[in-house]
Amino acid sequence: DGGITQSPKYLFRKEGQNVTLSCEQNLNHDAMYWYRQDPGQGLRLIYYSQIVNDFQKGDIAEGYSVSREKKESFPLTVTSAQKNPTAFYLCASNRGTVLAKNIQYFGAGTRLSVL
Amino acid sequence: LAKTTQPISMDSYEGQEVNITCSHNNIATNDYITWYQQFPSQGPRFIIQGYKTKVTNEVASLFIPADRKSSTLSLPRVSLSDTAVYYCLVAPGVNFNKFYFGSGTKLNVKP
Fold it and tell me: N or C: which end of chain A has fewer CB within 10 A?
């Protein structure tokens, strides 16, 4: 089955700890994204990557870091600098071509809570 | 970047047709209109996309007037399982990455 896999589904972070959220896709998509969603709110863009070894900050990048060493993988690290990390995190991808018309495909999400 | 305005919430009953309108006054010539559906604790999923006039698929219809400053998502004969948040996005078809999802429209379908 083709799709986007996020893990873990639930994650707990202690004060001062860095945690990494995994996102893997087997859709052969070039572009990948990380969003944060707070209760009752829409999605806010954290980081995005159009190609391997390149990524750009979104609207709320402070306290987060990413890497894009492989086309299939785009992990997100929530650092200790992110003082309010409790949220639902969503990873997405799209093909980035004319035919794809920027339609995004999402993973099932990771819910992060602070202990 | 064209921002969108949608109603915060809507109520409907099973079997009714539901129309959700989105305003996007600053839409650009190369922008497409895309609608997504999100259930609680799940990622959004693509419903339908259009550029102008009317688009229909097995799930919904999308109506876009000639001036393209608004669009209407039409869900025929909704069921309880259509209770979800619906997002309207406006963005270029290619070479664009900073999508704006907004707060969406919470559709509550009642029995």
Answer: N
